[in-house]
Design goal:
The complex is a heterodimer of chains A (277) and B (314).
Chain A (H helix, E strand, L loop, with lengths): L1 H9 L1 H18 L1 H4 L31 H36 L1 H15 L3 H12 L3 H27 L3 H8 L4 H12 L1 H25 L10 H10 L6 H28 L8
Helix pairs in contact in A: 1-12, 2-4, 2-12, 4-5, 4-7, 4-10, 4-12, 5-7, 6-7, 7-9, 7-10, 8-9, 10-11, 10-12, 11-12
Chain B lengths: L1 H28 L4 H6 L5 H10 L6 H13 L13 H6 L2 H28 L4 H15 L2 H15 L24 H27 L2 H8 L4 H12 L1 H25 L5 H11 L2 H29 L6
Helix pairs in contact in B: 1-14, 6-7, 6-9, 6-12, 7-9, 8-9, 8-12, 9-12, 10-11, 12-13, 12-14, 13-14
The chains are: A mainly alpha (277), B mainly alpha (314).
């Protein structure tokens, strides 16, 4: 952790990106303390007000406070994004490591991953959402399934490399169980590229989730989500452009920060990864 | 070369079969009986039973798949639940918008991404390079729907240069001028992908420019233009062609979002409304067609390698 902070401090941009991430987490954790209005409270008297002292980012067509909704949207975004990354890293690493280690099984599983990857991301996500129906849990599963093959691909390649190393060979000679070799030798040694890939995946996830919410097939519209607020703002683009502006900026800054932190992590963990990721 | 293409085409069959299995199973993952889904909530048990029989749903699953795949190979993708007409004609009636949009988007990607990448590699570490790197970094982080809304706000609402939304066929009144409806959508679709192409072109050019034969070409006094375009750019054609080929598939898929932003009557919007209407046959059809397109583009890219690089012999 210490060396990571050191590496980040050396780069001004990466430091700013990391600070922004910390700020986001604070917003997500302390949303109720940071906002004066309930993000769900409808108040038609104050609908479509431009930014002012009372409503610093204005109000939407239901008179809901855009600032409150954006802050609560942070919570929504981070929880969804982290869950998807958790899902796809868990299953991706498991599938990739098993496929790389047990070869005949591997070729079948990896073939399946290739097939999943031949459907474009957004199409696959939409098709899965059509089956599962709307809702937060379904969004996590659908986008998780879309990103799992990529992590699996990476892990598969890494496993093929690591299983040929002498330390794995010696472990095998000592009679260490297959399961222990996979968890304690292969996965442990593949962690740095996986962590870097996870931070890039996080950025992709945030855009994917926001796109589903924007298209109206993600979480139900009353739940404050960045994509959902932008979608609301589209209807009132001419009358109230502020509705779509701020959540949009939030998405851009978040994905940029994640990419920058990912870049810094990659260079700090292992500069050779530049060729791989 | 010819025999290679034939071999690759034959090799595509198992891949198409596997993709079809996934798309077929997709229909069977839907909770409930497909016959009941098609008839809607007001159907009687008797009606559902008769349709189940008619659709062959009581047969073993591999026989169902065989029948379905045979029909798909003959171009029959089934019937839309909502439109009550064949999926292929539903998709066909929206193809014009999508094809034109993808073509214009591609034009943006190539005309912006390629020159910008070459210039930043040649003028490395100058302000042009820095600016194009920053822009391409931003391009990767900006969600396309938001970019579309910003472009719409600035160029359609504030400046009024382009229409905000909708599209009429170029064969209808207005003719080719109707393409102006597609300019902002094409930019929305093209800019983020152009950013990716810029980064890729830059890095492959940088690798090639440091090679000996480029120095030789410069040393023997060839004009810089010739060195860059003929000697250097040609030798990074392969990664660039691959990226451009797959960008085509990405553009077709991302059109889902862009068409929704600009309310264009294309295949992408059909997908969204089909998700909301639970019109599964249409979704299955589009899913299958995009996956086939992906496989086909894969093949085209491989064939292009052989044409571009005489060292690659199949």
């Amino acid at each position: 952790m210490k060396w990571f902070l050191k590496a980040i401090m050396k780069r001004k941009v990466a430091f700013m990106a990391l600070s922004f991430m910390v700020l986001l987490v604070i917003c997500a954790v302390f949303s109720p303390l940071l906002t004066a209005y309930d993000p769900l409270r409808i108040n038609p008297v104050v609908r479509l007000l431009p930014p002012s002292m009372e409503h610093i980012l204005g109000t939407d067509s239901f008179g809901r406070d855009v600032f409150s909704r954006t802050i609560y949207g942070t919570r929504q975004t981070l929880i969804t994004g982290a869950s998807i990354v958790g899902f796809s890293v868990f299953f991706g690493v498991l599938i990739g490591a098993m496929s790389g280690y047990f070869r005949p099984l591997g070729s079948v599983l990896m073939r399946l991953m290739d097939i999943l990857m031949s459907f474009p991301d957004i199409m696959l996500a939409l098709a899965l959402m059509a089956i599962f129906g709307r809702g937060l849990f379904n969004v996590i599963i659908a986008i998780g399934i879309v990103f799992t093959p990529r992590i699996a691909r990476l892990m598969y390649g890494l496993t093929l490399e690591i299983r040929e190393t002498t330390y794995v060979e010696s472990a095998r000679a000592l009679g260490v169980s297959h399961w222990r070799i996979i968890t304690h030798y292969i996965i442990i040694n593949a962690l740095s590229p996986i962590i870097v890939q996870a931070s890039f995946t996080f950025a992709f996830c945030i855009i994917a989730v926001a796109s589903l919410d924007f298209l109206g097939v993600g979480v139900p519209p009353y739940i404050p989500s960045w994509g959902g607020i932008v979608s609301e703002g589209r209807t009132y683009l001419t009358r109230a452009p502020w509705i779509m502006t701020f959540p949009g900026i939030a998405i851009v800054l978040t994905t940029l920060s994640l990419n920058l932190v990912g870049d810094a992590l990659r260079d700090a963990l292992d500069p050779r990864l530049r060729r791989l990721l | 070369m010819g025999s290679y293409v034939i071999r690759r085409l034959l090799g595509m069959i198992p891949a198409m079969l596997l993709v079809s299995v996934v798309a077929f199973l997709f229909m069977h993952l839907i909770p409930g009986n497909p016959a009941a889904v098609r008839l809607g909530p007001s159907a009687t048990t008797d009606q559902i039973e008769r349709l189940t029989e008619k659709m062959g749903l009581n047969e073993p699953i591999h026989i169902q798949f065989g029948r379905w795949f045979a029909r798909v190979m003959q171009g029959d993708l089934g019937e839309s639940i909502f439109f009550q007409q064949s999926v292929l004609s539903v998709i066909g009636s929206r193809a014009e918008t999508s094809i034109l949009l993808a073509t214009l988007g591609m034009l943006v990607v190539i005309c912006v991404g390629l020159p910008l990448g070459v210039i930043s590699a040649v003028r490395r570490n100058t302000w042009i390079d820095q600016a194009s790197l920053t822009v391409s970094f931003l391009g990767a982080g900006i969600p396309d729907f938001w970019l579309g809304l910003l472009l719409m706000l600035v160029f359609a609402v504030i400046l009024g240069w382009f229409p905000t939304s909708g599209f009429t066929s170029i064969f209808a009144k207005g003719g080719i001028m109707n393409l102006r409806y597609l300019i902002l959508p094409a930019l929305t679709l093209g800019i983020p992908n152009a950013a990716l192409l810029t980064r890729l072109t830059r890095s492959s050019m940088l690798e090639v420019l440091s090679l000996d034969y480029v120095s030789t070409a410069k040393a023997k006094g060839l004009p810089e233009r010739t060195v860059i375009l003929k000697h250097a750019l040609r030798n990074c054609a392969i990664p660039i062609i691959t990226t451009i080929a797959f960008t085509l598939v990405i553009l077709m898929a991302q059109a889902v979002v862009t068409e929704s932003v600009f309310a264009l009557p294309g295949i992408g919007r059909l997908v969204i409304s089909s998700v909301l209407r639970r019109d599964y046959p249409v979704l299955q059809g589009v899913l299958l067609l995009t996956a086939f397109l992906y496989l086909f583009v894969n093949l085209l890219a491989d064939v292009a390698y052989g044409l571009l690089d005489p060292r690659i012999r199949y």
